[in-house]
Amino acid sequence: MTDPVIRALSASDAHLFDALPDPLGAREGHRRTRFRPDWKRVALRDGEVVARGAWWGGPDDSEPVNINWFDVAEGEEEAGAELLRSAPWQVELEINLPGGWREKTGLRAAAEARFAAARAAGYALLVERFLYRWTPQRGLPERPGRLRFSAEPDDTVFFDALRRIHSVTLDAHALRAVEEGGLDRAAQDELDFFHWCPSPREWWRIAHTPEGDLVGIHIPAHNPSGPTIGFIGVVPEQRGHGYAYDLLADCTHLLVEQGAEFIGGATDQGNFPMAANFTKAGFPVIAERINFHPAG
Predict the structure, then answer these.
(1) Which of 7, 53, 138, 193 has a Cα at 20 to 30 A from 121?
(2) How far is CA 23 from the centre of its chain?
(3) How many alpha carbons fall within 13 Å on the CB side of residue 288?
(4) Where are the beta strands (DSSP E) in the chain?
């Protein structure tokens, strides 16, 4: 067996990316995603594509943010690993999977082949997440009316709230940011991401009790795939009252008022309270996501 040849693609040979089967339905999941041809890479063995990866970033980014399409042919885990190892960018890897993939033999085998390739390339599992999608047929979640929501133009108010929220959190990405750079790093990462999103800063909301005590924040957003529940967070001293649902309901209403015809959302599978709130608010699970990060 010959060694795989790794190739970056261009506009002239971007068609090679489509040469592999798509058992996990990535193409449908990415029909709104815009990939740059030169951020796509393939591994070829004897002229046949045996692995592929698409790195993704925003239209103004000079480097990719993540890899969100990664496939390997049956038995070609090492070629997939070499595709990842040899890339000029070491960024987070997202693998989206249909719901119930563990119970379907073919889907499970395809998923585990990708996991094996990622681990062989030095990537480590970060978190497993649920992906949600609200549509108008589900009906708008009722606003409980317990909180007062307002716009807040001062980023330092959100920064301080994010520090408090991330001081006690179940979110794997936030925990990793805290471990690597402390609470300031975790809060700044969130602010930087939502400023990067193309949605208006004016949408961000802060929530108080009628007495004026801070409860938390929510950030309605648009990412490149469409409208989404960007962030829901309750400060530690206000937890235990179900306020995350109030934030989620208000966030959903605001996005619909801005013209959203569907709304995405996501939470870590271990975050049972937030998963329950998504279900209560009419957001069904439509897929799962496995996040790997470069362990080195």
Answers:
(1) 193
(2) 21
(3) 15
(4) 5-8, 40-45, 48-56, 66-72, 92-98, 123-134, 148-151, 205-208, 214-223, 226-234, 263-268, 285-294
The first and second tokens of residue 140, run together, are 């708008």
Q: What is the pTM of this model?
A: 0.94
pLDDT tens figures, 111-143: 999 999 999 999 999 999 999 999 999 999 999
Cα separation, 293 vs 296, in Å, equals: 9
Using one digit for the tens of pLDDT, what is the confidence trace for 212-227?
Answer: 999 999 999 998 789 9
What tokens does 241 get?
Answer: 């009252």
What CA–CA distance (Å, rounded) separates 156 from 166? 15
Query: Which own/partner contact pairs does 196-199 have at CB distance under 8 Å and 24+ positions apart?
Result: 196/58, 197/221, 197/222, 197/223, 197/230, 198/222, 198/224, 199/227, 199/230
Cβ atoms of residues 243 and 216 within 8 Å: yes
Q: How far is CA 237 from CA 26, 155, 240, in A?
A: 41, 21, 9
**DSSP assigned state of 4:** P
Query: Which structure tokens are listed for 5?
Result: 């040849």
Cβ partners under 8 Å of residue 16, min gap 6: 7, 9, 42, 44, 49
- On whether the CB atoms of residues 40 and 53 are closer than 8 A, the answer is yes
Tokens 């648009």 -> residue: 222
